[in-house]
Design brief:
By secondary structure, the protein is of the alpha/beta class. It has helices at about 10-20, 35-40, 70-80, 95-110, 135-140, 160-165, 190-200, 230-235, 265-280, 285-295, 295-325, 350-360, 395-410, and strands at about 25, 85-90, 125-130, 145-150, 155, 170-175, 205-210, 240-245, 260, 330-335, 345, 365, 385.
């Protein structure tokens, strides 16, 4: 059945029924649900007013140690698949570290920059699309020109990427969410990673911002493997090329996680010197909570099975409702991710904004159409990011039915 056979009158009846319910469902951001946060409540009890000393005798209440506790360094170096000497520990937000890393490049340049980026006539970044709106916002704030590149099933379209960076010296970097990409859910293949690591670039100080936010956020029992980008860059003779970012924001407590940056020792040494002017040290009490609660990587992986048990039914519900409502009409496509926090929905060209507006009218708030593109401009007006993590399962099912009716209405008028 095609969209031309849709019964507009019956769709309007269903749409009006949603409006009459005065729904207030929010699927705009990938927030953990209260039930997910509850999984880490024990973290609030492992440090107390009488027990705040780390295993090595460090008083976690006091100043000292730019990177914090050695036990935290060891745990999160293993999480990032690097050595402690290749790691910077941060506060609760990896986005804050990404922001600061780019600000420092703009102000001072990198270890292999001929001059600070702000002294260049133009700085550009490649942005795989659809992508993460907060990455784009950082570039826009700093005046970095963004150049969209398309995504394939195994990562960015590398023929396009290689051609651009080879010929344009203004291109100083590239954003990547390499595992369960936001919002498409792709995991970069070994081939893509090897090509990113080895490709010739016109800019000697080209940097890949490797935001591995969903490294352990699996929805399947046999998750895809992600090759270590730092080691790939080393093997290709470009050890300074990548900055790798991670955090526990969607592992432990979203507002009170720990974040980290991994890179070559040369990069890390330079960034530590700059960072020592910014802060005396990180929150060691929070690090101590994480070390005691998780203990090791096995503890993190075990903990994440609890997250998967809560999230998987919601992602299955998104697919089930969209399949039931839309599949036979050939009006939209959507991703079926193996992990992460999002589903990427593509309407027919020119309809995404209309669908988002109709969904809000029906009581379901979605991420604005265009948010997954630089400058908020989706030239085809097709992509919508769905975030099913925060609402309850029943709310996800209800919200997706309303979204599906919005898609059908938009497609039939």
């Amino acid at each position: 059945m095609s969209s031309s056979t849709l019964d507009l009158a019956s769709l309007q009846v269903r749409f009006d029924a949603f409006k009459a319910q005065n729904l207030n469902l929010n699927m705009t951001r990938g927030k953990p649900s209260p039930e997910q946060l509850d999984l880490a409540n024990g973290m609030l009890d492992v440090v107390s007013s009488s027990d705040f000393t780390a295993a090595d005798g460090t008083d976690a209440r006091n100043y000292g140690g730019l990177n914090g506790l050695t036990a935290a360094e060891a745990l999160f170096a293993e999480y990032m698949e690097v050595s402690p000497s290749e790691l910077i520990m941060g506060g609760n937000s990896s986005l804050a570290i990404m922001h600061d890393t780019l600000v420092r490049a703009v102000l001072f340049g990198t270890v292999d920059s001929p001059k600070p980026w702000h002294k260049e006539d133009k700085i550009s970044f490649l942005c795989p699309v659809p992508g993460y709106d907060r990455h784009f916002a950082v570039c826009e704030l700093l005046g970095i020109h963004m150049m969209p590149v398309p995504m394939n099933a195994d990562g960015p379209h590398m023929d396009t990427v290689e051609a651009l960076v080879r010929d344009d010296p203004s291109i100083r970097g590239m954003w990547c969410v390499p595992k369960y990409s936001n919002p498409g859910g792709q995991t970069y293949s070994d081939e893509v990673i090897n090509r990113l690591a080895a490709m010739p670039t016109a800019a000697a100080d080209f940097r890949i911002m490797w935001d591995n936010a969903y490294a352990v956020h699996h929805l399947v029992s046999d998750p895809p493997h992600l090759k270590n980008m730092l080691r790939a860059c080393e093997s290709a003779g470009n050890p300074e090329r990548v900055y790798m970012f991670g955090s526990t924001s969607k592992i432990s407590l979203a507002g009170a996680g720990v974040a980290m940056l991994a890179a070559s020792e040369r990069n890390i040494s330079a960034l530590r010197k700059q960072r020592a002017v910014q802060t005396i040290g990180v929150d060691k009490l929070n690090q101590l909570r994480h070390v005691r609660f998780f203990n090791d990587m096995n503890g993190i992986h075990t903990h994440m099975t609890g997250h998967a048990a809560l999230l998987k039914p919601k992602f299955e519900a998104v697919d089930a409702v969209l399949t039931r409502e839309l599949a036979e009409h050939n009006v939209a496509t959507w991703s079926k991710p193996q992990g992460g926090y999002f589903v990427s929905l593509d309407t027919r060209p020119g309809l995404a904004k209309r669908v988002v507006a109709l969904a809000e009218e029906a009581g379901v708030k979605l991420t604005p159409a265009g948010a997954t593109q630089p400058y908020g401009n989706d030239p085809e007006d097709t992509n919508i990011r769905l975030a099913p993590s925060f609402p309850s399962l029943a709310e996800v099912e209800q919200a997706m039915e309303a979204v599906a009716v919005a898609v059908l209405l938009a497609s039939s008028t």
